[in-house]
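Researcher: Re-running this chain for the archive, since the previous output was lost when a drive failed. Same request as before.
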Amino acid sequence: MAMVDSTSTSTAADANYPHLFSPMQLGGQRFRNRIAFASMFSGRPHNGDVTPELIAFYANRAAGGAALIVTEPLSVLRRVDLFAGQVRVHERKDLDGLCRWSAAVRQHDSGIVAQLQDSGRGDVRPLRKPFSLAPSALPDDLSWTMPHAMSKSEIAKVRDDFAAAAAILQKAGFNGVELSSGHGHLHHQFLSPWANRRDDDYGGPLENRIRIHVELVQAIRSVCGEDFLIGMRLPGNDGVLGSIGWNAAAEIAEALTQCCSLSYVNFVQGSQASTLYMHVADMHSPRGTYVDDIARLRARCNGVPVAATGRITEPAQAEALLAADKADFVMMGRTLLADPAWGMKARANRDGHIRKCVSCNNCWGEVVHRGKPLSCDNNPRVARDDEVDWWPRRDPVPKRLTIVGGGIAGLEAAWIAAARGHHVTLFSESADLGGKARLYASMPGCEAISSIFDYEIATAQRAGVAFKLSQRASLQDIQASAPDAVILATGGEMYWPSQLPIEWREWGVIPNLWTLIKDLPRMREETGTAVLYDFDGTDVTYSAAEALSHHFSKVVIVSPVESLARDEALVKRQAIYHRLLNRGVEAVQWSEPSPNTDLENGRVAIRNIMTNRETAIENVALFAYATPRRPRDEMLEPLKTLGYDTYIIGDAFVPRPTMATVREAHDLGENLWATPRMAAATTLERL
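Model: Regenerated structure tokens:
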């Protein structure tokens, strides 16, 4: 249930954020504030149709305070699309669904703009597409797809299909469209002198390369009129050699805003290439990563409103950039994914209640890399009907719950159960709550991780959780708390590499990743090589390697698989490689440490698992390991023997990513004692 009406006003908040909550004029349309939700794939259409889950996802962001909603890319052309999950506009496939979609957003006094996009030759997957279009027959940098070079008649057909889609969307109640001409997609390829090698009216000088855009805007205006919004997503710096940098982007923006009737523009970075990571700046990038560059581009946009994008996470940050006249409004995707009520809470002076975006880009990985519905590490209720500003109802009969473990799993379950009115006691071995996530957040560039446990701690305190800090709970402690149920959220520990003698572990000279991170603040610069055995493959390991590069003359990562960050989405993997390569970190793949290692003489032996050949890394000053975690579940059986209704969650049951951990703990906190069935369910049945 929502705690605050999305249409309520707050004079005090308007005074705190006068620019953010001032009305905005785009074209002939007026919007109640300057908060826009940026286009993101939701993964929620089905067979090209609009679904209730899709509608709820967007309606929630409108109800939470965004005055303008930009949809995920919609399918326009009658051919194989980049993602089968796109809503298909052509041939009026689901006009009724489109009408319901727009109505659900507009009922919250918000506008809705549909993004029209064709990816051209581009694909983030390492698969050659069976058919694609492009201005020139050049292979895609990522998928190696060779496209069909478009004829003039095919260019006209694309223009007409886009205009026809805009007319359908206008009939369905949409306020306008946004034309995607960035990220290396089809229309970006026409703008790029690197991707566009044509020698006709659509290639060569700038006036020719923008021609397809000019004709497209004219075609849409001819069928939809002047009041219909036409936004354009333009490239800023796409990072591709010989393509579009900041100076070229300014020339393109100036030319298009001068000769096209555009309602707004926004700028995106990177391309379908080795620079893909640039379009979603992660937590290792500064806040407002591209805001100053966008401000410089805005000066060349002939007065057309410009949106600021890129790691805008705080209301105060958005207000400051608007006050400094760096943009006309803010367009946020991941920020409003993490908390759709971001605007509502800011306006009600409840900034501390916002679940912040971590900028981890796991959301991108879920929908693009794994083909799942869009999800968030810090928002386990994405697209649920009650997602906006959710707070649980109080149970009529309060019970006593004891939680062992002060990490993100224990904290998430604790605050929800306490908010339901139950008496919750949480034991934490450490004086600092947050568990391993707090260690992760302690490294340079990883500070945003703290937003997960910071929210949980503050909300748990507000809900009345009783914390027992610096106390490792014993069975006697648990019995003394007289619980009706116990949740074990005791986490896991990295297992010792099986290739190394077990006695080495007892000597304590080879730290695991978590011990290493604890020691980082006390490390001094020294000559020698740091070797990190990577059997983990996640950002925390590579963040530690990057940190080590500031302390040692050389850092080598040894991994038994073919590439670092193998299981991470491409956008994260690229960013990881970018950071490590720039710091000179080396990688040895298909390899593992050998028992022939001689640490006393600074020699780590490495065995190639494909050939069995051994090599050695010399002058080693530090050898550490990051491996899968083993559950710390030793209290489970004793608690069951004592007859306690016991639940085990997070890494204590089985190691899993943050997203799955938070969601599992959230659901348990919400549903514990809700029904007899749930109270009796085992962890395995609930997964």
